[in-house]
Design brief:
Blueprint (H helix, E strand, L loop, with lengths): L3 H14 L4 E7 L20 E7 L2 E6 L2 E6 L4 E6 L14 E8 L4 E8 L7 E5 L6 H4 L10 H8 L6 H5 L10 H11 L12 H22 L4 H11 L18 E4 L4 E4 L1 H4 L16
Antiparallel strand pairs: 1-6, 2-3, 3-4, 4-8, 5-7, 6-7, 9-10
Helix pairs in contact: 1-6, 1-7, 5-6
Length: 287
């Protein structure tokens, strides 16, 4: 799933290439991807892209006052194709879900929104105001804007596990499954620690880890083409996706907890005092 660093890098990439171009056509290849009907995608035709922004893990193309807002979910992503393909986009078994053809006055480029897998959660909204998109309206603050006290306020009173709270977009916007694993590893905190019970030292470590991990990832991602960002992210993970490998900090074997359709990883040596969280529901280990 693309998270804050990748979506911010994509937004900056599109700001450099799409702004100033005119929407020649929007081809909706998979009807399920479109979550709004008024205004229709055809309303974008003939209008110029005037800006690109990020809201949490969503990207927002401002098309002369109308907004094309995209939530990539788990398996969605974007491709920039310049020049645009000459063959028309057609429904089929491929990953292409929606294509925006952009004219710079002499040639066409294509912004292709794609989705792998079978779950089909990629969501595209055409709206007059980004706040009309429920997943934008309910976002918490960007984690990189929070100081220690601000982060403490977001966690205060929560009895939920720290892993759950960090990935709750209503609490902070932009952190997903992968970066929360690496943030908690850097902070030396258990994913099962109760979020509202961190002491001042733990809060300071968590705040520092959020900024170090996200800022480092952002610095690596910005300037890369969209098709390079997933591999870049994968190569930078310290614990996420590395179950069974040795932790590069303490040498302990990285462990995993699996759910029906997701999993997360952590280092018992760095985060849980050497203890393995044997069962996600029954473990009483909190920190």
């Amino acid at each position: 799933m693309p998270e804050l660093p990748e979506v911010e890098a994509l937004a900056r990439f599109l700001a450099e290439r799409a702004v100033g171009r005119v929407v020649a056509r929007v081809d909706v290849v998979a009807l399920n991807v479109l979550k709004t009907f008024d205004p229709p995608p055809t309303a974008l035709q003939g209008l110029a892209v005037t800006g690109v922004a990020r809201h949490g893990k969503l990207v927002d193309l401002d098309v002369d006052g109308l907004h094309l807002v995209v939530h990539f979910s788990r398996a969605g992503w974007a491709q920039w194709r310049d020049p645009a393909p000459t063959a028309p986009a057609r429904p089929g078994k491929g990953p292409l879900a929606l294509r925006v053809l952009l004219d710079d006055g002499g040639s066409l480029a294509a912004l292709d929104l794609t989705e792998a897998g079978t779950q089909k959660r990629l969501a595209v909204h055409v709206v007059r105001d980004p706040a009309d998109v429920p997943s934008v309206a309910g976002l918490g603050p960007d984690p990189l804007t929070l100081d220690v006290d601000g982060l403490a306020e977001r966690l205060a009173g929560s009895r939920q596990r720290l892993k759950t709270v960090l990935t709750d977009q209503h609490v902070v916007a932009g952190i997903g499954n992968a970066y929360s694993d690496d943030v908690l590893h850097a902070a030396r905190l258990s994913p099962f620690a109760p979020a509202g019970s961190l002491d001042p030292d733990e809060l300071a470590r968590l705040h520092a880890a959020v900024h170090a991990v996200l800022a480092g990832a952002l610095g690596s991602a910005v300037g890369r083409a969209p098709d390079q960002l997933k591999d870049d992210k994968r190569g930078r993970m310290r614990v996420h996706g590395r179950a069974g490998q040795a932790c590069d900090v303490c040498g302990t074997t990285i462990a995993e907890i699996s759910y029906t359709d997701s999993s997360f990883q952590y280092c018992p040596g760095c985060q849980t005092g050497g203890q393995v969280l044997a069962d996600r529901r029954m473990s009483r280990l909190l920190r």
